[in-house]
Write a structure and sequence with these properties.
globular; binds the ligand C[C@H](O)[C@H](O)[C@@H](O)C(=O)CO; alpha/beta; two-stranded antiparallel ribbon; TIM Barrel; binds manganese (II) ion
């Protein structure tokens, strides 16, 4: 262990202890928190079903950084590299279009066997897996509608895909001994102002009821649904709005997925957590960074990221919240994107775990708002970085900026050899 890291850590430990914070306990808790890394950062949300098909559904990856993964093997290799630079054991969030099959499989016919090699890989590398039906980038979604389509055949196709996806999720959960969160996000909506806002929502509700008709063992699969405010081409109306899914998740007791980029520009998900948790069993978070729109930038250590993690820790809700990432930046090294974003999510969690919760709560309950404000501000200057460095060292991953050396080497040896 480096002497510098050790010395800085000991000093930091004393400073936190003076506030009643047990640094070792905070690090021990952090070790138990998995983050679900989204496979789609590795190849700009293209997948392996039909790599020549462009991304649709009102989402967009911008940039043309060389070296994106073109095969299942390349994506796994890139993921392995990313996980090796992130402290702790983490999950993978997989989309249906990342199936591993020699034949082209219609979306409504995906089966567990198409994901068997992902199970083998996950077992070898101790990853839980989460899953998503892919209701976009497909001819049957080209008019922008899937589960809420007026066309019964189209609806049926996507219902079947979502049912099949739940079964794949349950397969992962059963094989890996940890439930998969299977999250449904659909793009359905209108570019311009619709006349009938009610009909599509009734159809979506009915489609979801059919999809969820069969109850699956929660030890294997947990169902989540993700709302959105607008997408590219669905600026005026999105069927699956926040109110729609909040009502659906509450009435059906499903997991609600809150994506940080799916609300009005100044609206934050951190303040929704404590409200929504009163009414739904569990939450899925898509931690993202919207810049002026749902731009899916790599997560940085923003105030909102810190506020999200504070809410999870302060609410003592770790066992009811699943943390997933959702960004896709094609303008920078894609492995660095995963590593920077995930390390930031973990750093924000550690910051939250290092709060002197009892002291802050006491001030608040006594009405000592001056003390509360002063302490919250002082915490920003605490030597948190020394604790983070020690955590990385203990977990056997690079300390500080050193992770970029490994990424640069990998880019030279592996990514630069890929020609698309
Ligand atoms: C690829 C994901 O499913 C997608 O990003 C979804 O979660 C979303 O946030 C769409 O805006
Ligand atoms: Mn999302």
């Amino acid at each position: 262990m480096s002497q510098d890291v050790e010395q800085a850590f000991q000093l930091a430990k004393e400073r936190y202890a003076a506030l009643g914070v047990d640094v070792d306990a905070a690090m021990a808790t952090l070790k138990t928190i998995p983050i679900s890394l989204h496979c789609w950062q590795g190849d700009d949300v293209i997948g392996f079903e039909d790599p020549d098909r462009a991304l649709s559904g009102g989402i967009m990856a911008t940039g043309n950084y060389p070296g994106k993964a073109r095969t299942v093997a390349e994506l796994r290799r890139d993921l392995d590299k990313a996980y090796s630079l992130i402290p702790g054991e983490h999950r993978l969030n997989l989309h249906a279009i990342y199936l591993d099959s020699d034949q082209k499989v219609p979306r409504n016919e995906i089966r567990p066997e198409h994901f068997a090699s992902w199970v083998d890989w996950a077992k070898e590398n101790h990853h839980g897996v989460d899953f998503n039906p892919t209701c976009f980038s497909h001819p049957m979604a080209d008019d922008g509608f899937t589960l809420a389509s007026e066309d019964e055949g189209v609806r049926q196709f996507w219902v079947e895909h979502c049912i099949a996806s739940r079964e794949v999720g349950a397969y992962f959960g059963k094989e890996l001994g940890t439930p998969a969160v299977t999250n449904i996000w659909i793009p359905d909506g209108y570019k311009d102002v619709p006349v009938d806002r009610f009909g599509p929502r009734m159809r979506l509700r009915d489609s979801l009821d059919i999809i969820f008709k069969e109850s699956l063992d929660p030890e294997h699969n947990l169902d989540a649904i993700e709302c959105k405010l607008f997408g590219l081409g669905s600026e005026s109306y999105v069927v699956g709005s926040h109110e729609f899914y909040l009502g659906y998740a509450t009435s059906r007791q499903k997991l609600l997925c809150l994506d940080a980029g799916h609300f009005h520009p100044t609206e934050v998900i951190s303040d929704k957590i404590s409200s929504v948790l009163l009414y739904v069993p569990e939450l899925l978070l898509h931690v993202s960074r919207p810049v002026r729109w749902d731009s899916d930038h790599v997560v940085t250590l923003t105030d909102e990221l810190q506020a999200i993690m504070q809410q999870i820790i302060r609410s003592r809700a770790l066992d009811r919240i699943h943390i997933g990432l959702d960004f896709f930046d094609a303008s920078i090294n894609r492995i660095a994107a995963w590593v920077i974003g995930t390390r930031n999510a973990l750093r924000a969690l550690l910051l939250a775990l290092l709060e002197p919760r009892d002291m802050l709560l006491q001030y608040e309950h006594e009405g000592n708002f001056t003390g509360r404000l002063a302490l919250l501000e002082e915490l920003k200057g605490m030597p948190f970085g020394a604790v983070w460095d020690m955590y990385c060292e203990q977990q056997g991953v690079p300390v500080g900026f050193a992770f970029m050396d490994e990424i640069n080497q990998y880019e030279k040896a592996v990514l630069s050899q890929r020609r698309s």
